[in-house]
């Protein structure tokens, strides 16, 4: 704390040297004109924002010799520029977000707030994401079977298709790995002849329910099409929830539907995933479909009146209450899981918990006393509403 106070008191001019101040007027112009823009959203009244300012500035000085248009460190007074903060869902301070080629990246910065950590993060973001190979054995050795991977074969790395893959890979570097073989002679039978579209396949990790390769067959030359295809594979419809990523998932703002299962139970996960793909693919922006280890998350199960012996169990956590999908085997009944999700959005789950099955008519004086569904447990994993927090969460 003494360090940042000294910088504030002794070097006031230094604090504006290499961090660009952004506002509603120049925000879009700056993020569009630079490859990387690392933005500190702050509030003057927040002491944590004041603590970060000199640290953020000192880290920015490590990049002052970067090429023009490569990297900009910037700050936004979120109180004075509420429209910008609202657009990017900033509601705690300080929040650090990275913009790449004018687009905000999926994950905001959540690690240590030190000069060394911030510097290392940006250096990492500036690294080339796609691994290139000219030898088959080297590519195979580099492939990590425990990670979701995209494997491509290109004749020409100067092509539009290759450049599109390079740019897409930058956005999903944390979720997937990207490996590319270059040259028809180096990869006979894999690299298409000159004049034909390059080859790209998605290889799920060996932990996936279905590890079969998925070939890309769309328009490689259209960046947005390729990006959407990669996103659909890299960020699947069903994700795993852990204590390490729960805070991040809560910040997406969507209620959770979670399959609690035993760690080695692949069958229920496949049944659950198949049902979601079949019945609620259109609900991706309305609910987060997750899978969790029922042994680790035994506390939420107890709130539902369930234990490890009852696994697998499906439940929705709305961040206010938890609702139980009463019988896992009902997932095989067409429309049952979809109705469970729609009943959450319509408020029916909450109404029926209080008053019994719809429709119910209550007479004054004879209304059934209100009861409450089990309270949300994952709501407790949200960060503080007014600032960023890093907590070592190992239990609820």
Task: Explain what this protein looks like in three dimensions.
- One of its GO terms (cellular component) is endoplasmic reticulum-Golgi intermediate compartment.
- This protein is an alpha/beta fold and 396 residues long.
- The chain has three domains: 2-125, Glutaredoxin (3-Layer(aba) Sandwich), CATH 3.40.30; 131-234, Glutaredoxin (3-Layer(aba) Sandwich), CATH 3.40.30.10; 238-381, 3-Layer(aba) Sandwich (Glutaredoxin), CATH 3.40.30.10.
- It is built from 13 helices and 15 strands.
- The chain is globular and about 65 Å long.
- The two termini are 31 Å apart.
- Mean pLDDT is 85; it is low at 1-17, 360-370 and 384-395.
In terms of topology, how is this protein built?
Blueprint lengths: L1 H9 L9 E3 L4 H7 L2 E7 L4 H14 L10 E7 L4 H6 L7 E6 L2 E2 L10 H11 L5 E3 L2 H7 L6 E6 L5 H12 L5 E6 L16 E5 L10 E2 L7 H12 L3 E3 L5 H5 L5 E6 L4 H14 L8 E6 L4 H6 L9 E5 L4 E4 L10 H11 L1 H8 L41
Parallel strand pairs: 1-3, 2-3, 6-8, 7-8, 11-13, 12-13
Antiparallel strand pairs: 2-4, 4-5, 7-9, 9-10, 12-14, 14-15
């Amino acid at each position: 704390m003494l360090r940042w106070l000294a910088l504030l008191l002794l070097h006031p001019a230094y604090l504006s040297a290499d961090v660009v101040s952004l506002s509603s007027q120049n925000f879009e112009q700056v993020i569009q004109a630079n490859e990387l823009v690392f933005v500190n959203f702050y509030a003057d009244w927040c002491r944590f924002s004041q603590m970060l300012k000199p640290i953020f500035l000192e880290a920015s000085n490590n990049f002052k010799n970067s090429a023009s248009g490569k990297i900009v460190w910037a700050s936004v007074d979120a109180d004075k520029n509420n429209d910008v903060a609202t657009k990017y869902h900033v509601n705690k301070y300080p929040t650090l977000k990275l913009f790449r080629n004018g687009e905000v990246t999926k994950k905001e910065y959540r690690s240590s707030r030190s000069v060394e950590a911030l510097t290392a993060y940006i250096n990492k973001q500036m690294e080339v994401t796609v691994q290139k190979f000219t030898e088959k054995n080297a590519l195979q050795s580099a492939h990590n079977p425990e990670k979701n991977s995209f494997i491509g074969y290109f004749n020409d790395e100067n092509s539009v298709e290759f450049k599109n893959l390079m740019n897409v890979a930058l956005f999903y570097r944390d979720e997937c790995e990207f490996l590319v073989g270059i040259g028809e002679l180096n990869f006979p039978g894999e690299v298409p002849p000159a004049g034909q579209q390059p080859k790209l396949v998605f290889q799920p990790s060996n932990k996936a329910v279905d590890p079969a390769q998925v070939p890309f067959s769309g328009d490689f030359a259209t960046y947005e099409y390729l990006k959407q295809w990669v996103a659909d594979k890299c960020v699947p419809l069903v994700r795993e929830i852990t204590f390490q990523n729960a805070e991040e998932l809560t910040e997406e703002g969507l209620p959770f539907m979670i399959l609690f299962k035993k760690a080695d139970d692949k069958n229920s996960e496949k049944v659950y995933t198949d049902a979601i793909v079949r019945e609620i693919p259109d609900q991706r922006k309305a609910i987060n479909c997750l899978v969790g280890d029922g042994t680790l998350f035994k506390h939420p199960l107890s709130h539902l009146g369930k234990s490890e012996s009852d696994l697998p169990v499906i439940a929705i956590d709305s961040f206010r209450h938890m609702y139980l999908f009463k019988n896992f085997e009902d997932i095989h009944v067409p429309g049952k899981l979809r109705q469970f999700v729609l009943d959450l959005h319509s408020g029916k789950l909450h109404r029926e918990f209080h008053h019994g099955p719809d429709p119910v008519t209550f007479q004054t004086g004879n209304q059934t006393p209100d009861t409450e569904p089990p309270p949300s447990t994952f709501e407790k994993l949200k960060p503080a509403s007014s600032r960023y927090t890093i907590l070592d969460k190992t239990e609820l």
